[in-house]
């Protein structure tokens, strides 16, 4: 007996969306795959949740605090790497940044699987939000894979020879480092063309470059359909997990949290307790496995 209303499918309790997919399999109906746009939007939402869990992690907050305690005065004097209106740092400061600051930033990024060491107090607009008034200059730090984490902070090859002149030194740096002193997301691509060439030649060249870079990007970022998540995603529950965790962290008892968050359900205190511990698992590092 298959019932979709109560989400009981052959004795198993599942979500409605899963029940519909299972029904499709039973009936031999092909379930349409998500479009690339849907996959992209979902991956951005997952990255947003990953940051929300990470920024509540006590050890990450400690790592960032120590990083700022050591280099905060330098950044306040010269500007942070993600600020685009800084005065040019100059060769001496760039060397210090690349040789002293970048390796420690890279260590933090690799430990927590992020692009940049970002203040845990920083919040980002939830993907899909139409309010773009408060867009940040830096990207979501959790929008990266384990292999990408910290990779952009390895600047040793670009500052190996300190005998170079100021101009030669800048020319050796990656464009993004020379301009804004920080890593650039690899999904951005800028192309420059010589308009003196015929249009058909320029179009072929543009297509060749785009195809080459897109293939390279796709190898580093497999589509969601090619990834088997080790942690089951529950995007429909993450907001509740975070809310319960915040209330508990503020000192509320599980009984009060249950009455507030699970008011229409039975065993409300137990639901609150389960949600809190699930949130804590994700905060303690489980967020890394979300795909």
Would you write up a description of this structure?
With 291 residues, the chain is an all-alpha fold. The chain has four domains: 1-32, no CATH class; 37-180, no CATH class; 189-224; 228-291. It has ten helices and three strands; from the N terminus they run βββαααααααααα. The chain has helices at residues 16-27, 36-54, 58-78, 90-112, 166-172, 175-180, 199-220, 238-249, 254-261, 268-283, and strands spanning 2-3, 8-9, 12-13. A three-stranded antiparallel beta sheet has the order 1-2-3, covered by helices on one side. A hairpin with a 2-residue loop joins strand 2 and strand 3 (12-13).
Quick description:
This protein has 291 residues and is mainly α. It has four domains: 1-32, no CATH class; 37-180, no CATH class; 189-224; 228-291.
Shape: flat
Distance between the termini: 33 Å
User: What's the helix count?
Assistant: 10
Structural class: mainly alpha
Overall structural domain count:
4
Unreliable spans: 1-14, 129-136, 174-183, 224-231
Order of helices and strands: EEEHHHHHHHHHH
The order of strands across the largest sheet is 1-2-3
* Major sheet characteristics: 3 strands, antiparallel
What's the mean pLDDT score? 76
Roughly how many Å is the radius of gyration? 24 Å
Strand residue content: under 5%
Helix content: 40-55%
Number of strands: 3
Question: Descriptors for this entry?
Answer:
4 domains, 3-stranded antiparallel beta sheet, 291 residues, mainly alpha, 10 helices, flat, disordered N terminus
Topology summary:
Blueprint: E1 2-3, E2 8-9, E3 12-13, H1 16-27, H2 36-54, H3 58-78, H4 90-112, H5 166-172, H6 175-180, H7 199-220, H8 238-249, H9 254-261, H10 268-283
Antiparallel strand pairs: 1-2, 2-3
Helix pairs in contact: 2-10, 3-4, 8-10, 9-10
